[in-house]
Design a protein that fits this description.
It contains 14 helices and 21 strands. The protein is α/β, with parallel strands linked by helices. It folds into 2 domains: 202 residues, UDP-n-acetylglucosamine1-carboxyvinyl-transferase, Chain (Alpha-beta prism); 187 residues, UDP-n-acetylglucosamine1-carboxyvinyl-transferase, Chain (Alpha-beta prism), CATH 3.65.10.10. Helix 6 packs parallel to helix 7 and helix 8 packs parallel to helix 12.
Length: 420
């Protein structure tokens, strides 16, 4: 492949901010909203609650949650297929109501506890009782709280932030996630009148306000995980590509690891603002394996969602590297799907795998694993394989990437979508 790719807007920022629009007593105008299936499911959820949604153009939405919400009509299917529906717990915490929220799905990554959400929210007055197929939620009047996050997860932190913003008094959230989507949510809420200090750190100080502004206009940030996806595709296919509009604060360590592997790259056109942005140019390179294990961690660090995107790159590199995906039980297991395309992967346990290269990828027919990043890894390796591959059940990829196949085709990939 050869040319330039414009990075897409951040999926995980968008779903959180869309849910947070429920807290705005009037109209929210959002720009740069990624047009992906995960966003579509959240919009279905909001519409089922009674939010008035209007499409103003590509990636631009108007949402009005100022009317009376109907808690009895929450879209069951949309709740069940996206784990992001859990963000309604914090977004709806200021509404004096009891309601049922159907249990969610999303990527099948093994045991994913909801306890961090529940432990955080109960401090602010939100009671969540887990039933077999749904959560029974009861909102008491919000109260300020000083809490330590049971787990520094992104969505649990976002739920705690949304509750604290409208809780009278001063709240302190310690061991908070400082990841990109959490920061983007904080900037959105601050633009709406919230009083939040410590954005980008693990301690947030929030002074509750009585009400947020009646109208907000906000643009979603670019996606560091999509940027890493394009980088991985470029590197594995020996391509000369430039990925434009990359949020560098969330890619610095990833680029450091790539450079230590021998990847030739250049960061260009750096600019400052809410986030430090730049374009990243990569060239075909001879790669050597990382001598040390690679693992993800909460920000600052190598992003947990970027970790699996190193697997195709490591399969191309000469040597052997240990990938430790401690956060999810099943994600390392899904890397074995790449064996069907010629990758040499030795799974040690549910969290650790040896990746050995260099790999000469071969074409094959594969069904997408039921998790977003492992699924897009299969596509990346198929691009590097000689011959025609067939990838089935691609909805899981469409959950998180906007026009991915057209974008890759625009720089030289040969991808055809077949309706079955």
């Amino acid at each position: 492949m050869h040319g330039e790719i414009m990075n897409q807007s951040a999926k995980n920022s968008a779903v959180a901010i869309l849910c947070a629009s429920l807290m705005i007593p009037g109209k929210t105008i959002l720009s740069d909203v990624p047009q992906i299936e995960e966003v579509n499911r959240i919009l279905e959820l909001l519409a089922s609650l009674g939010v008035k949604i209007e499409k103003l153009g590509p990636g631009k939405l108007s949402l009005d949650a100022g009317g009376k919400l109907n808690f009895d009509s929450i879209d069951k299917h949309a709740s069940e297929v996206t784990r992001s529906s859990l963000l309604l717990l914090g977004a709806l915490s200021s509404h004096r109501a009891s309601y049922k929220l159907y249990k969610s799905g999303g990527c099948r990554l093994g045991e994913r506890t909801v306890r961090p959400h529940l432990y955080a929210l109960e401090n602010f007055g939100v009671s969540v009782i887990s039933k077999q197929k749904f959560y029974e939620v009861k909102n008491s009047p919000l109260r300020a709280a000083e809490i330590v996050m049971y787990e520094s997860g992104d969505t649990p932190t976002e739920n705690a932030i949304m509750a604290a913003v409208l809780a009278p008094g001063k709240s302190i959230i310690r061991m908070a996630s400082a990841n990109y989507m959490v920061q983007d949510l904080c900037f959105f809420l601050r633009q709406a009148g919230a009083k939040i200090e410590g954005i980008g750190t693990t301690t947030l100080i929030i002074e509750g306000v009585k009400e947020l502004k009646s109208s907000v206009n906000y643009s979603i940030m670019p996606d560091p995980i999509a940027a890493m996806t394009f980088l991985s595709a470029a590197i594995v296919t020996n391509s000369h590509l430039t990925i434009k509009n990359c949020p560098m604060d969330f890619l610095d360590l990833e680029l450091c690891k790539l450079e230590k592997m021998g990847q030739k790259l250049q960061v260009k056109n750096e600019r400052s603002g809410k986030f430090r942005m730049a374009d990243i140019e990569v060239w075909p390179s001879s790669l050597k394996a990382l001598p040390d294990k690679i693992y993800g961690r909460p920000f600052p660090g190598l992003n947990i969602d970027n970790l699996p995107l190193f697997v195709p790159i490591l399969a191309k590199a000469k040597g052997r590297t240990l990938v430790h995906d401690w956060a999810y039980e099943n994600r390392s297991v899904y890397s074995l799907e790449l064996q069907k395309l010629g990758a040499k992967i030795n799974l040690l346990d549910l969290h650790r795998a040896w990746i050995e290269g260099p790999t000469k990828f071969k074409a094959n027919e594969v069904v997408c694993p039921p998790a977003l990043r492992p699924a897009v890894n299969v596509l990346i390796c198929m691009l590097a394989a000689k011959g025609k591959s067939i990838l089935r059940n691609t909805y899981v990829i469409d959950r998180g990437y906007e026009n991915l196949y057209d974008i890759l085709s625009s720089v030289g990939a040969d991808i055809k979508i077949v309706k079955e």
